[in-house]
Queue: 2 jobs
Job 1
Amino acid sequence: METDHKHQGSDDGDALLTCAVGDPAAFTPLVEQFSPALHGYFARRAPGAADDLLSEAWLQAFAARRTFDASRGSARAWLFGVARNVLAGHIRRAGRATAPADRVEVDPWQAVDQRLDAAALAPELRRALADLPAEERELLLLVSWEELTPTEAAAVVGIPAGTARSRLHRARGRLRAHLAPIRHLALTPATPVRTDRKESA
Amino acid sequence: MTQRQDLLDFPGAEVLQAAGRVEPPAPQAVAQALAAVQAAARQETAQHSAVVPLGRRPFAHGRRILATAVAAAAVASGVVAYSVTGADQSGGHRTPHQAQAITAATFLDHTADVAYARTAASGRYWKVRTRVSTTGTKPTPATDYYYARSMDAVYTVAGGQTHKKPGTFAWRLGSKELHSWSDLDRLPTDPAQLVTLMNSSKEYAGQSAFLQAGALLGESPAGPELRAGLYRALARLHGVKLVGTVKDSAGRTGTELVFSGVAGTDHMVIDPKTSALLETSSVSTKGSDRGKTTRVTYLSVGPADKIG
């Protein structure tokens, strides 16, 4: 059975957020403690708006701090949950400006894919990630980039921890299945391997 | 292998992690966030003992962050001001009607902030466990309703029996029919637009926006932004009054609101900590049903991956 690792300072965050319900001043240390992580979350998914979204997320978190319940999850997960809502609102607003109202997406994949492209990520890996169901990809990126535990990632997206573990397991399986032929090709470049996929021009 | 290595055991994991590396935020960005929070905290402290704000605050105008900063300050004052008061901040007196209207708006705006901070639903079905009672009839047993994402079928589970109701189903807001969860995502979230939409159907002319918003808040998987928008839309409705803290028919504590519509008086009980709608009830004030009360209690609402 998996045992989620604890992030350094996560207990402090829980205590601070709990104290901040009655003492607003207790909230401000959280801003310094968690801003790098939250800003990173926004920078990877909405690079041009990360600074503004960071402020918006903190104000939302401050306004809603009474809803934090340490028995239901860590402060870190709760804050990422707020950040996720702020990001979804941003994407929705931006989408409305450029797309018909009935085609607005809230998945940040487009910005994420641009980041992967800029990082010269192997096209096969990008395609494999693109082919993942959005809910599996989101969990995988929360674990990979935000270094959240499966339990924390589950709290962020609002699903049971067991469901998050299942989805992560399925995502890893899909990536292995998708990328295994390429791995083989890399090992033996002279051997043609059928991938049954159209190569992009 | 450590747990983290186990989690990232797939081809390309290291490359993916490397692609996610970003520069830490500029000090100004953190300072800006810190200043905004400190300003909100100062406002909250200053207003902690204040009575209700003097009027409904214009939420949908101006820059979003500014509006949110105002909300942050208003939340605290709202929390301590849900009881009805007859005096305003200048020492003058307000009629009970005015005070009630203002505190209802404050409460609903606070609830909107809480709703906005909740996580969005994720599951194959939306499960709603309700109990319905009507004056003069035997209360129905608690029933679980499972709404599929495509809304092409609704499953009910009551007394251990599962039934599938085939056909297409839809929630409704004004003239818009919402045939899937995705349709909910396409609704506007601006409170003014929502009010306009709710008033856009002639067929719904007799049914208040209060009830329409209540149906979506109680039964649908509306996302955090839409739920927040609906609560803010309710805050803009004239005639919504705050009753105070009550217990619903399931014994849960919540805050009750009341709205007098054309054909009846409608009530909502909301949990201010979670923004969940706990119970709605409608009392007919006209026709042969005068005095008849229909109560819907939302015993539990949330996502589910399987039926039963």
Job 2
Amino acid sequence: MKFKSIRMKNFMRYKGENTIEFSCDSKKNVTVVLGDNTVGKTTIAQAFRWGLYGAISMDRRKSDEDYLLLNNDVLAMMDANSRAEVLVEIIAMDEEKTYTILRQVQYTRAFPKMIAKEYNKKLTMHVAENGEEKTGVEIDSNKADEVINELFPKDLSHYFLFDGERWNDVTVGGVRENIKDSVHILTGLSSYQKAMWHLKDMGSNSVIRKFKGKITGNGNMYDNLEAERRQKERDIEKYMEQIQNIDVNLQNYARKIAELELQLEQNKNTEILQSRNKQLHILKNSQEAQCVNNYKVLVNEFSDKAYMLFAQPMIDAGLKMVKAVAGERRDIPHMRQASIDYILKSGRCICGTKIMPDSPELECLMEQRNYLPPADIGSLLGEFERTANRWNNRTAEAKEDFLEAANQVDRSVRAYEETCNELAAIEKQMDEQIDFGEIRGKIRYCKGEEQRLSNQKGELKGRIENCKKRIEQIEMEMKEQEAKSEENKKWRERVELAEDLYGRMSKDFAEKEQKIFLELNQQIQNNFSRMFNAKDKKIELDKQYNIQMLYQTENGFREEKNLSEGEKIARNFAFIVTIMEYSRKKKAQKECRDEVSSDTLPIVLDGPFSKLGDENIHLIAKVLPEVSEQVIIFMLRKDWEYTGLDNYVGASYSIDKDAQKAYASIRKTGGIE
Amino acid sequence: MASYEFFKSDYKFYGKHARMVSELCYLNDYQHTYFKRLVDIIPMAAVIGFRLDRKAEADYAPVETKTVFLQQMLNIKENLDFILQMMIMLENAQQIPQEEAVKKAFRGAQTKEEFEQYQDMFDSYVRGGIEELYERLVVRKADSDDDFYENKTANLMVLLERFAPR
């Protein structure tokens, strides 16, 4: 089965007519519709759903009244007298026939309010041999829904029509309780179930019961027995009903317990958190002290020495000047002022020259005296050099010391801040903790109730068994009392035949169900590991066909309930692919073909990849064209490059929306844009 | 020997410079202070002001005056004298022969005018240095190119890189 085209008129975001023709090529079987966020990709998926089933959403929280089918822009242009039409036409074809499904609704406007009122809904369906679309037959509009449901079973719509947002739901399509039924429909087991129900399981109206009712007997004894049998049968039905109620409650309690235990599981590290918190507080205090110490070292070093280091160029320049001056004028070595004073006092120089007042000799000696110690400048020059040397010595390794001190500060500040961050995170986590006692109390209560209900259920089952045994006895007795008429014999034979048939069917059913379960489980695991190269994870179906994801632990695989969005999608996707493959195989077997049929349902995907990583997009996308004969994807333009599907694309469209306009339009593109 | 001695009185910061030094120095708060004591700012500011040739006028905005007391001044007098000596020497070397400049520096202030002139020069450099330090330490925010993660440390190390000889 393939979709050939979809035509929408004034449907939700699309004003006027928009048509998409899907690729029906067997190799290039992918049709892609690319658009940016919020331009109306999901609307196309909704058009499919509405066209096929007359309903917009599978979301149970929303009813169809929550959606306005008529394009807002069209509505705004209407007056009290105008009429507007919304239609979706879907053309699909299989190997023999072409099916045209046309769903229309007329609207008036409750002018001047922006409220649309629908006044005429219509569904028409046309079926024709391929290539002879003009002829063919109209399907009676009452029957059309039924035919559509045969072609595209609504129960399976979860598997071939998805929107991405629901992919990560607890189960596929958010319809948990229906998965098993859906699988049974798909695998053909539901017809067994129906037959068995009809034969016996429905109770007093079943075939076997009715046959038995035809058998007649004589006398009060027989009538009494028959009355008692009816009573017992009614009892059984009553008990069954009670068991059904108990089962619903048991399921609720089981779900509740699972939720509560998950909460405990998620918070099981509270104790660890508390002790870690304590440790961190101690660590934080010591780190804080360490920081202050390191700051202190740095600040002290800096205050004490940095200016000496920074003054180095001044000192160098000063020393140079002082040395230049001193080099020219340096005093006579080892001579002191006192030596000159002695010469002056003696009145004669050591060279013998007499020293006269105001003579050049005296002047020369007096000048020399100025540069001798302890005269001011001479000693101060020396002093200057000594200070300069002292400063130099003190700062010889100062730069390295500063850097080391700074590194110490940096390291300790980082460590301290890391500790603070960790503490904040832990405290936040601890703040979110709930009262464990209360949760444990609830779990205890739920488990107690579960136990009580299970006991009740067991007791009821026992009673049912008793009733059945009693009925068997009664029937034996009745058989003896039975009138030995031809008529009775005929019905007796029929009863026995029906009982045999029922017995055979229930045996077959049990075997097949087990086989299908095992096969599906195997296949789903294969698909999962084929699509997602994960060695430490696997997925599995439980008896209710819920998909579980298992993580490898030291004690083997263990169910993990806390899954990421990507994991949920991957898990559900593996399931969907498995179901599609299985239905394909099933069909091939049914038609006794060795080759797996190419005739299966198309897959229509709305934004399937928005929550996946690039690598997973590729892994998932590459299996799509293989598992279905036709793939229709609406997705974000930016995600396309990761799919790697370019070689499979047979038709591509782009959704354009002018920012100024309230409606979108669809444009066929020559390739991916 | 000089008849006038420097740094033998309280040292006061006024106006905006008082505000700036109060942000550069938080006594006993090692996480936030850049200098151990107020007095430590003086030699640093003097050196930096002189090296950048950045002088600043005194400011008398109504801010609480910050005072370094005499006793602390006396403790670092020797180092401040040395810095001042270098300042006089190097500054004068631009105008008069080196020999004279050196003599001037070692002779110190001979007159009241000289004393006030030198004092004023020193203070102007200190104020210029304070402004520079304020800009480089308090105003500057560490950026991602800095080698150090912590803002204060990063700023100190950038200052070190700028002024320490290579």
